[in-house]
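Thread: quick sanity check before group meeting

JM: Hey all, I'm pulling together slides for Thursday and realized we never actually wrote out the predicted structure for the chain we discussed last week. Dropping the sequence here so it's in one place. If anyone has concerns about the input, flag it before I start.
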Amino acid sequence: MKKLNTYLLVLMGVFALTWSACTDSYDYDPAPEVDGEGVYFPSSVQTSITLDGTEGSFTLKVQRTKSTGVGESGLTAEFTEGGASVFSVPAKVSFADGETETTATVNYNNLVRGTTYNMTLSFVDGTPYGGSSLTFKVLYPAEVLEEWELVSDKAVLIDNILNPWGIKDYPISGITVEKEKNSNKYRFRSPYTNAYFIDVNGAPLFPDDYQYPYIVLDGETYKEKAPGEYYIPKTTLGFKMVNGTGLSVDATWNSFGSVAVNLSTSSGPIEPGNATYPMAKYDTNTKMFNLGSVYHNVEEYGFYMPTGMVLYLDPALMSPDYDRDYTWETVKDATGYFTSEIAGESWTQVVQQAEEDPTFYRFTSLYAQDVHIYFNYGAVKGTLTMPKMQPTGLTTYGNEVYVDAVPGKCTVDADHKFTFVLSFYLVDADDKKTAELMQSTEIFLWGRGPLDQLVKGKKIEDYVGTWSVPLTNGQDGGRMSVNITKADKTTLLVQGLSIVKDYDDTMALEYDAETGFLNFEFQQVASINGYYGFVSPFNSETTALGTKSGESLIGGLSKDGVLTFLNNPANAGTYDSMVYVKSPDGKQLGFMTGYWNYLEWAPVTSAASFSSLNNVSFNTGFKVVEQGITPRRTYKTELNLKSSPAQPQELSTNIQVPIHNEFSLVTR
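JM (edit): ok, ran it. Output follows.
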């Protein structure tokens, strides 16, 4: 065993000597230093170059190894495919003092589509350790033949390009829209044709053989920077608007396009994807392009940005279906009192809000059952607007009635009193307004009931006095003075309301000291000529009486001192007046005179005329009056209103709205 270990040690020593000898005999030759500038192309330079035009230039980055002093190097070029007559390469590149990087610009002209040019560039003062000689493949791609397919030949554009001159929300129908088969691009011919100008300006503008340009919706070029948006390139529509002069033909005038990419501000070009100036977007549910922020270039004035420019591919989907497109929830604290001039009545109205848009609301079943009216309310700025051309559910002589807000007339005050001034009108088969029926002021008290119109805390003595009360029998009417006196601390007595001669018609009003309001319910009064006498809440439209317990009218003073009675919100029915009735048996009820009184009683001063209606005799006939509950809301959908012809839109030569002048065209 010892001998074996001795042999191993001897062998290991021999190996060690052998390895040492090998190491000592290895000769290392260091790399020679680079003479001259050592110019080369960095590894980041792209050797495959694709160009998009027949002429232009491209720039290549160049570096050197030497880092002191000024320097330069000659540059040689070799070409294939006849590139020598196409490309112009600089004879040398130069470096500033101490700079290690510069550029070489290659110009080109008369490129041939579909041709790949091999261009070898070599630096005379190069380096063996870098790309001092590289071959570049330069391609001008073969033209892609676009294949357009029909999408719609019934598209409708809602046009506002001439809005500043009085042409607003103008529908242009019968537009043909095409889509490129292999890309996300759409196009349609300019709808600003002779037919358009005859309609809005009374005369054609273009020669009969004029070729109208395409307006392109390009969803390809900027799909990375602005996903889902469509760029509209600068378009020469063939005309220009000169403010103060009018229209003129100009085939070179840059008329129209997307604000993004095409325009710039003092901060520079407006980039695609800019949230302030979005490009066009497509809604698949309604098959509609919203053209987004577009411009109309006005000579000697600036850029007008028409809003509301939308293109519907399917006219059947033009009318928005807000029930389909939004989710609606009732706003619990918004239910309030709605007073309608066109309906001639007031009611408690529910408000709902769209989950998808917190500024979008609707009045449910406003004028007709299940026909809702929509509006936009911006609580921060107090803005109040409405979508256009809303169906109301109303008709006049069998024709459907539509409603728009009158521009600038809808307001909201600090107490959340909403005032809508609305235009009710008729349209023709092309949805153009033909006649206005009336402008109506509608008032909504957000979150307030009818009793909020009354002043709380009035004393019982505030109601004592003489009041002028309106009365009618449905044909004749007038006013009658009635006296209110205090019976005790919770009861007032009213005399003279029945207007029957020689009859003590005293009735009672109960006073609530907590609220300062009055309460009137069905009650028995003095008998007359063998009949029981009663006075009751009354619905003058249905001639129904409110005889059931709990049905009442609430009275109080308005801010301007009028004694006003309102239908109690707790009622099962609706009542708009009071009426005296008689009964032979305490069961069947009939009119005492046929007159009923309305519910707004004006105070009578000593100088005022007490009465315009004479007392009447007791009615000896008997006609049963219906008792029971009248529905809270009865819709009257047939108006039978006379119409006034709608005034057609006319093109003005002078601007009527402000134009944006802070933009300039992007030049390329």
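AS: nice. The radius of gyration is 43 Å. The first helix runs from residue 2 to 24.
JM: adding both to the slides.
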